[in-house]
Amino acid sequence: MSMNIDASKKDKVALVTGATSGIGRSTALLLASEGATVVVAARREEKGRQVVEEIRALGGEAAFLKMDVANEESVRDGIRWIVGRYGKLDLAVNNAGISKRPAPLIETDTKDLQDALQTNVVGLFASMKHEAAAMLKTGGGAIVNVSSINGLRPTDRSSAYSASKFAVEALTKVAAKEMAGHNIRINAIAPGPTKSEITEGLGEELLAGFAQLIPAKRMAESEEIAKAIAYLLSDDAAFAVGSTWVMDGGLIL
Ligand SMILES: NC(=O)c1ccc[n+]([C@@H]2O[C@H](COP(=O)([O-])OP(=O)(O)OC[C@H]3O[C@@H](n4cnc5c(N)ncnc54)[C@H](OP(=O)(O)O)[C@@H]3O)[C@@H](O)[C@H]2O)c1
Fold this sequence. Notes:
alpha/beta; Rossmann fold; 7-stranded parallel beta sheet; 7 strands; 15% strand; binds NADP nicotinamide-adenine-dinucleotide phosphate
């Protein structure tokens, strides 16, 4: 990866939650390559420090922040730490999320729904709330929430995950409407099947099946999703407010 300074990211401080792997890691690397100082947030410290080292080796600026989005205190303290260290927060990507193996409703544990809601919804809610509060103090910013095509149309065998992602869509649109007048732009990206740790866990057979259902006949690379996130965070997307960018190779058409 070569350094590619996008004027709208230079001197910006960016938080990426769930940046230890998959879409979050690719986004952290890309934003750093565009000149942002990137806070790599997640629970796994060793993996997080590896991402920070990768960014630094490429000439970028980054720091690891141990954060569990399912715990609001951890989110609040983490964002306080960012503002204390850098004086501001300009950009945030609420990407941290979990997904269990697809299962029919009657075989889904209620605990799976509670876990999905705690991380994907309560965690994203707490993240957006504390990020927006920090951004308000320094004049604005931009936030991208990582939703899913499962948050846009009903997907069978996905009740817990879909419920959480439909909620992400609602939270994104309400917050975007509230914050647009305060110079804080909030949008979402809805990826289709994308290569990452979440999908690796599903096994090759299931993944090959997914790929066949996609008009583009392949899954997305996490770097492709990262590029769309970076665009939504940039000043070029200044009029995008409360939108969801579907990036799924045509799957939901
Ligand atoms: N891959 C796909 O096909 C696909 C499609 C649509 C949407 N998405 C969404 O994309 C996002 C990223 O997923 P991915 O596919 O890149 O999967 P991934 O490789 O498993 O990444 C998930 C990330 O979330 C972090 N995370 C999970 N729980 C967390 C918590 N409580 N606090 C902080 N970080 C947490 C993980 O880090 P730690 O374990 O280190 O905390 C990891 O970095 C998710 O929101 C997912 O729902 C993925």
